[in-house]
Design a protein that fits this description.
By secondary structure, the protein is an alpha+beta fold. The chain contains 3 helices and 7 strands. Bound molecules: nickel (II) ion.
Length: 168
Protein backbone atom coordinates (compact mmCIF):
# COMPACT_ATOMS: atom_id res chain seq x y z
CA UNK A 1 0.00 0.00 0.00
CA UNK A 2 1.07 3.57 -0.53
CA UNK A 3 -0.06 6.97 0.59
CA UNK A 4 -1.23 9.22 -2.24
CA UNK A 5 -0.94 13.02 -2.51
CA UNK A 6 -4.29 14.78 -2.02
CA UNK A 7 -5.30 17.68 -4.30
CA UNK A 8 -6.30 20.84 -2.47
CA UNK A 9 -8.94 23.46 -3.28
CA UNK A 10 -8.83 25.52 -5.52
CA UNK A 11 -6.88 23.04 -7.70
CA UNK A 12 -8.85 22.94 -10.98
CA UNK A 13 -8.29 19.18 -11.27
CA UNK A 14 -10.83 18.78 -8.45
CA UNK A 15 -13.43 20.06 -10.93
CA UNK A 16 -12.97 17.10 -13.31
CA UNK A 17 -16.05 14.93 -13.88
CA UNK A 18 -15.00 11.35 -13.12
CA UNK A 19 -15.59 8.53 -15.61
CA UNK A 20 -17.22 5.19 -14.75
CA UNK A 21 -14.94 2.28 -13.83
CA UNK A 22 -15.18 -0.22 -16.69
CA UNK A 23 -13.45 -3.23 -15.13
CA UNK A 24 -12.89 -3.90 -11.42
CA UNK A 25 -9.40 -5.38 -11.56
CA UNK A 26 -6.24 -5.46 -9.43
CA UNK A 27 -5.35 -1.91 -10.50
CA UNK A 28 -8.66 -0.64 -9.09
CA UNK A 29 -8.28 -2.75 -5.94
CA UNK A 30 -4.75 -1.40 -5.41
CA UNK A 31 -5.96 2.17 -5.86
CA UNK A 32 -8.84 1.56 -3.41
CA UNK A 33 -6.37 0.18 -0.84
CA UNK A 34 -4.01 3.12 -1.33
CA UNK A 35 -6.95 5.51 -0.95
CA UNK A 36 -7.97 3.82 2.31
CA UNK A 37 -4.42 4.13 3.64
CA UNK A 38 -4.35 7.80 2.59
CA UNK A 39 -7.75 8.44 4.21
CA UNK A 40 -6.86 6.70 7.51
CA UNK A 41 -3.54 8.53 7.68
CA UNK A 42 -5.05 11.97 7.02
CA UNK A 43 -7.28 11.15 9.06
CA UNK A 44 -10.64 11.32 7.33
CA UNK A 45 -13.86 9.34 6.99
CA UNK A 46 -14.17 9.42 3.21
CA UNK A 47 -12.10 9.94 0.09
CA UNK A 48 -13.01 10.13 -3.60
CA UNK A 49 -10.58 9.05 -6.32
CA UNK A 50 -10.89 12.58 -7.77
CA UNK A 51 -9.09 13.90 -4.68
CA UNK A 52 -6.01 11.81 -5.46
CA UNK A 53 -6.11 12.84 -9.13
CA UNK A 54 -7.68 9.62 -10.46
CA UNK A 55 -10.79 10.73 -12.28
CA UNK A 56 -12.83 7.56 -12.01
CA UNK A 57 -16.00 6.83 -10.04
CA UNK A 58 -14.49 5.26 -6.94
CA UNK A 59 -15.03 6.18 -3.28
CA UNK A 60 -13.77 4.81 0.00
CA UNK A 61 -15.50 5.46 3.32
CA UNK A 62 -15.06 4.34 6.91
CA UNK A 63 -17.16 6.20 9.47
CA UNK A 64 -16.30 3.94 12.45
CA UNK A 65 -14.29 5.26 15.43
CA UNK A 66 -12.23 2.07 15.31
CA UNK A 67 -11.45 2.54 11.61
CA UNK A 68 -12.09 -1.12 10.97
CA UNK A 69 -15.00 -1.06 8.52
CA UNK A 70 -13.57 0.11 5.20
CA UNK A 71 -16.18 0.40 2.45
CA UNK A 72 -15.45 0.66 -1.26
CA UNK A 73 -18.04 2.10 -3.66
CA UNK A 74 -17.42 1.77 -7.39
CA UNK A 75 -19.75 3.60 -9.83
CA UNK A 76 -22.04 4.61 -6.95
CA UNK A 77 -25.57 5.80 -7.70
CA UNK A 78 -27.18 7.66 -4.82
CA UNK A 79 -30.94 8.16 -4.55
CA UNK A 80 -32.58 10.28 -1.83
CA UNK A 81 -35.17 8.32 0.17
CA UNK A 82 -36.75 11.45 1.64
CA UNK A 83 -37.16 15.14 0.81
CA UNK A 84 -36.03 15.99 4.33
CA UNK A 85 -32.60 17.53 4.65
CA UNK A 86 -30.38 17.86 7.70
CA UNK A 87 -27.56 20.33 8.35
CA UNK A 88 -24.23 18.71 9.11
CA UNK A 89 -20.89 20.35 9.78
CA UNK A 90 -18.63 19.05 7.02
CA UNK A 91 -14.93 19.13 6.37
CA UNK A 92 -12.91 17.81 3.45
CA UNK A 93 -9.36 16.53 3.06
CA UNK A 94 -9.11 18.76 -0.02
CA UNK A 95 -10.07 21.85 2.02
CA UNK A 96 -8.02 21.29 5.18
CA UNK A 97 -9.00 22.98 8.46
CA UNK A 98 -12.25 24.42 7.05
CA UNK A 99 -15.58 23.25 8.50
CA UNK A 100 -19.07 24.51 7.72
CA UNK A 101 -22.68 23.42 7.63
CA UNK A 102 -24.22 21.92 4.51
CA UNK A 103 -27.78 20.58 4.06
CA UNK A 104 -27.92 17.00 2.81
CA UNK A 105 -30.70 14.47 2.35
CA UNK A 106 -31.33 12.71 5.65
CA UNK A 107 -31.71 9.24 4.10
CA UNK A 108 -30.31 7.87 0.87
CA UNK A 109 -29.98 4.59 -0.94
CA UNK A 110 -26.72 3.75 -2.71
CA UNK A 111 -26.13 1.09 -5.33
CA UNK A 112 -22.53 0.40 -6.28
CA UNK A 113 -20.01 -2.31 -7.06
CA UNK A 114 -17.69 -3.53 -4.33
CA UNK A 115 -13.95 -4.23 -4.78
CA UNK A 116 -14.83 -7.67 -6.19
CA UNK A 117 -17.05 -6.14 -8.87
CA UNK A 118 -20.24 -7.33 -7.16
CA UNK A 119 -23.29 -5.07 -7.09
CA UNK A 120 -24.78 -4.15 -3.73
CA UNK A 121 -27.36 -1.70 -2.41
CA UNK A 122 -27.58 -0.20 1.04
CA UNK A 123 -29.62 2.45 2.79
CA UNK A 124 -27.89 5.06 4.89
CA UNK A 125 -28.73 7.86 7.26
CA UNK A 126 -26.69 9.99 9.67
CA UNK A 127 -22.99 10.46 8.97
CA UNK A 128 -22.86 7.72 6.32
CA UNK A 129 -25.62 9.42 4.27
CA UNK A 130 -23.81 12.77 4.54
CA UNK A 131 -20.47 11.23 3.64
CA UNK A 132 -21.87 9.41 0.58
CA UNK A 133 -23.41 12.63 -0.77
CA UNK A 134 -20.22 14.62 -0.08
CA UNK A 135 -17.99 12.03 -1.79
CA UNK A 136 -20.38 11.55 -4.72
CA UNK A 137 -20.16 15.32 -5.31
CA UNK A 138 -16.37 15.00 -5.70
CA UNK A 139 -16.92 12.61 -8.61
CA UNK A 140 -18.94 15.34 -10.31
CA UNK A 141 -16.28 17.97 -9.63
CA UNK A 142 -18.24 19.55 -6.80
CA UNK A 143 -16.93 20.53 -3.35
CA UNK A 144 -18.77 21.25 -0.09
CA UNK A 145 -17.61 24.88 -0.25
CA UNK A 146 -19.77 25.27 -3.38
CA UNK A 147 -22.82 25.16 -1.08
CA UNK A 148 -21.55 28.13 0.95
CA UNK A 149 -22.00 31.80 0.04
CA UNK A 150 -19.63 33.12 -2.62
CA UNK A 151 -18.18 35.50 -0.03
CA UNK A 152 -17.31 32.59 2.28
CA UNK A 153 -15.91 30.61 -0.65
CA UNK A 154 -13.69 33.54 -1.70
CA UNK A 155 -12.36 33.83 1.86
CA UNK A 156 -11.65 30.09 2.00
CA UNK A 157 -9.94 30.23 -1.38
CA UNK A 158 -7.70 33.11 -0.24
CA UNK A 159 -6.85 31.22 2.97
CA UNK A 160 -6.03 28.03 1.05
CA UNK A 161 -3.83 29.85 -1.47
CA UNK A 162 -1.95 31.54 1.38
CA UNK A 163 -1.41 28.19 3.13
CA UNK A 164 -0.28 26.56 -0.11
CA UNK A 165 2.19 29.38 -0.74
CA UNK A 166 3.61 28.99 2.78
CA UNK A 167 3.95 25.23 2.35
CA UNK A 168 5.45 25.43 -1.11
NI1 LIG B 1 -14.25 15.95 0.50
Amino acid sequence: MAKLPILHFPDPRLRTKAKPVLVVDDTIRRLANDMLETMYDAPGVGLAASQVNHHIRLLVIDITEEKNQPMVFINPVITPLTDATVPYEEGCLSVPSIYDFVERYARVSVTALNEHGESFTLEADGLLAVCLQHEQDHLDGKLFVDYLSSLKRQRIKAKMLKQQKQNA
